[in-house]
Amino acid sequence: MTQATGALGPGAAQAPGALDPGLPPGRRGVSVVVRGLFLLTKPRIIELLLVTTLPTMMLADRGFPSLWLVLVTLAGGALAAGSANTLNCYLDRDIDAVMKRTSRRPLVASASAHGSRAGGATAIKPGEALVSGILLGAASTLLLGLLANWLAAALADAAILFYVFVYTLGLKRRTASNIVIGGAAGCFPVLVGWAAVTGRVSWWAGVLFAVIFFWTPPHFWALAMKFRDDYAAANVPMLPVVAAPATVARKIVGYSYAMVGVTLLLTPYAGWIYGCCAALLGGWFLAEAHRLRGRIAAGSAPAPMRLFHLSIAYLTLLFAAVAVTALLPWHRW
Asked: Positive or negative CA dihedral for 86, 90, 91, 96?
């Protein structure tokens, strides 16, 4: 975002690092800090996580749970995801500063990029991000534990810990299998939703967990293919950095078949209408995965972002099918 100059008037001089009028030099506006902390939670990712939580709750309830429980679970899940994402940004701020895709995140971008004239100062200080991440996690635990149940709270905490310690600190910078294993953190919301409704975790919740587990590598590898140079510059061994495009495409196709196969395992519980939707959506996903592989084999530009965007639509529609069919008990086998 460019800096506005109209308030200073023609020919007015501003000392380096000075702020908008009314703020002392070196200070950031409250709105900049609040907006920066919010952006560190990666709200777009949170939206996708919540898309999987509500349908899972509906399937577990065989209908629509109480509105109060839904709001508590979604709020608690959003806080947990925001905590994990904020702590991830705190730990990966050196990587984010190198990668063009992440260079505008509040921990590495100047405050001026977020709406304030703070010279070279970052919009958010590392200590602020760390405290915010911890507080969000604590709020999630208390909200879910006190107003849903402690199993749901424990699962949300497990997701935070897994994302921070297993993926961010343990795997991301060390192995090309980082997203395969670490991506499990994004599967926990379905367990949280199921536990919030039933007080336990069943086999069927595990099936939904596996769906997202096998969906994550094709989804993220498509993105990493697009930003391969970014990850290479940051020395992050994402699969597209360390493997040939043909190898990446082959693995994407393999995980896609595994994902579609797992989605069909839910049919005996969710019903035949869901099964038909899962099969049709799976065919759509597989066609795009094969298209990507075919273009690479032919030496054409792969256009991986097509698969990336399709994967988001696919997961949204699949869980929409789960939600709708959960309200139709008459159609089950």
From this structure: positive
pLDDT, tens digit, 9 for 90 and up, residues 160-188: 999 999 999 999 999 999 999 999 999 99
Instruction: Report the DSSP beta bridge partners of residue 122.
Output: 110
- SS3 label, residue 281: helix
Outline which parts of the chain fall under CATH 1.20.120. 202-333
CA–CA separation, 333 and 240 (whole Å): 43
CA-CA distance, 189 to 181, in Å (whole number)? Answer: 16
Query: Nearest to residue 159, comparing CAs of 200, 203, 190?
Result: 190
Mean pLDDT of all residues belonging to the chain? 88
Q: 115: which 2 tokens?
A: 């709406």
- Listed in sequence order, the residues at least 6 apart from 184 whose beta carbon sits closer than 8 Å to its beta carbon are 162, 209, 213
Distance CA(207)–CA(101), nearest Å, equals 33
- Tell me the Cα Rg of the chain: 22
- In words, the CATH class of domain 202-333 is mainly alpha
Residue 245's nearest CA partner among 259, 224, 230, 270 is 224
With H, G, I as helix, E, B as strand and everything else as coil, classify residue 173.
coil
Q: Of 85, 67, 198, 73, whose CA–CA distance to 145 is shortest?
A: 73
pTM of this prediction? 0.87
Give residue for tokens 């001026």: 112
Alpha helices in the chain (DSSP H): 30-40, 43-61, 67-91, 93-98, 126-147, 150-161, 178-182, 188-198, 203-226, 228-233, 239-242, 245-265, 267-270, 272-297, 305-326
Q: What is the tens place of the pLDDT at every residue in 257-313? A: 999 999 999 999 999 999 999 999 999 999 999 999 999 999 988 899 999 999 999
Burial class (CB in 10 A: 0-12, 13-18, 19+), 243: middle
Q: Which DSSP letter does residue 222 get? A: H
